[in-house]
Amino acid sequence: MSGQDPWPSALPPALSRSELALFQHLVEAEAGIHLSSAKSALVANRLSRRMRELGLTSFAAYHAFVTARGNEAEKVRMLDSLCTHETSFFREPRHFELLRDHIFPEWSAQAAQGRRPRSIRVWSAGCSTGEEPYSLAMELLEAFPKGSGWNLEVVATDLSTWAVKRAEEGLWSLERARTIPQVLLRKYMLKGVRTQEGLMTAGPELRQFMRFARANLHAPATWPMGPFDVIFCRNVLIYFGAEARARVIQGLLSRLPETGYFFLGHAESLIGITAAARSVSANVYTPRPGPPLPSRE
């Protein structure tokens, strides 16, 4: 192509309804994510930068490029660009209180009685840039410190390769520290110096039992091997269509034993989706029958 900018205007080309429909079908087929018509501006803005890099002048041309045979890497890149990465440390604090005050003590007592092994596996499904899995790791170490005889593992996955890389790096702006309790911040996070001034990084105690990978919740073959004792899949399934959401939930529940716990986001519920799980607290479920856990209120 010539050296001329294919977009003489600073604005990206318009995204037509038919072009939006192409990406709606593609994204739902590949990732289970439903893009409503209200997302038209978001889709246009997030894809237009890559289109400019490629010298493509229409969204239809970019769709053809993404779906061309052998272009899987570009498809992954496209999905990355459309992912939402809103997150924070200890988001929805009641979930961490439930782990700290009820679930972890219950497991400790069971292990002392020889009723469960001294091992815990946690899956953060939709880990974004890592704040959630590192929050889980801090809570685990507080309850089951090094030398206590417990084997711990936190598996963190996301659809976005960019997000998984950021999470594995374990490096954030100091502004992100505001939601971390001070005692945990001082104990498990390191303040950056010199070239990393203004940043913080996860300490080695956290990193030693964490594992990161890309996984597509719409493609169970990419999921980590179960079973898990805890699965966090919060504020992810709200972006899925109803059928895809139900399939993913059934699959995630199948990765839990009867004593496991499944955590959803504050706006999510299993009501009307499955009868295979019982609510034990707000947005928290278990495959095991039994009464709700005690309320703190």
From TrEMBL:
The keyword Transferase applies. It catalyses: L-glutamyl-[protein] + S-adenosyl-L-methionine = [protein]-L-glutamate 5-O-methyl ester + S-adenosyl-L-homocysteine. Its EC number is 2.1.1.80. Residues 14-272 form the CheR-type methyltransferase domain. SMART domains: MeTrc. InterPro entries: Bact_Chemotaxis_MeTrfase (IPR050903), Chemotaxis_MeTrfase_CheR (IPR026024), CheR_C (IPR022642), CheR_MeTrfase (IPR000780), CheR_N (IPR022641), CheR_N_sf (IPR036804), SAM-dependent_MTases_sf (IPR029063). GO terms for molecular function: protein-glutamate O-methyltransferase activity. The keyword Oxidoreductase does not apply. Keywords: Methyltransferase, S-adenosyl-L-methionine, Transferase. GO terms for biological process: methylation. This is protein-glutamate O-methyltransferase. It comes from Corallococcus exercitus.
